[in-house]
């Protein structure tokens, strides 16, 4: 065998194999590689979109938490204001009730003082009549001298 003929035959077979591979094997391989690269690129883009959406969702959650916290603080301050208003109202009501009770007690004390004065006047008038009886050594008729006793009561 001739080395040159073998080498030429191998070149021919190599070029036929290379042509066959380029025509029938290479296009599906490049197509599969391109599809794989596209899927990877789409996956990376989806991951980036997911990260961006996650960051946006995190911002929305933080904003909602802040607004909920603000609403909670507002409700707490409103409740504190309302409680303070109720306390003030109760204090005012208690003050008014205390003033009313004090006025009623004063009125009752004045009435009792007046009744005591009237009772004392009656007792003084009775004592005055008895004293006059003792002095005159005769009985003084209270019915006859009613005008005189009334005048005496008013002077006391």
Question: Helices and strands in order, then pairings?
Answer:
Blueprint: H1 3-136, H2 146-155
Helix pairs in contact: 1-2
Structure notes:
0% of the residues are buried. The protein has two helices and no strands. It has one domain. Helices cover 92% and strands 0% of the residues. Helix 1 crosses helix 2 (146-155). It has helices at residues 3-136, 146-155. The chain has 156 residues and is mainly α. The radius of gyration is 60 Å and the shape is rod-shaped. The mean pLDDT is 88.
Please outline what is shown here.
By secondary structure, the protein is mostly helical.
Kindly list the characteristics that best describe this protein.
single chain; about 160 residues; mainly alpha; 2 helices; about 90% helix; cell membrane; hydrogen ion transport; transmembrane
Tell me the span between the first and last alpha carbons: 171 Å
Unreliable stretches covering 5 or more consecutive residues? none
- β-sheet strand percentage: under 5%
- The figure for the number of domains is 1
Number of strands: 0
The profile of the biggest β sheet is:
none
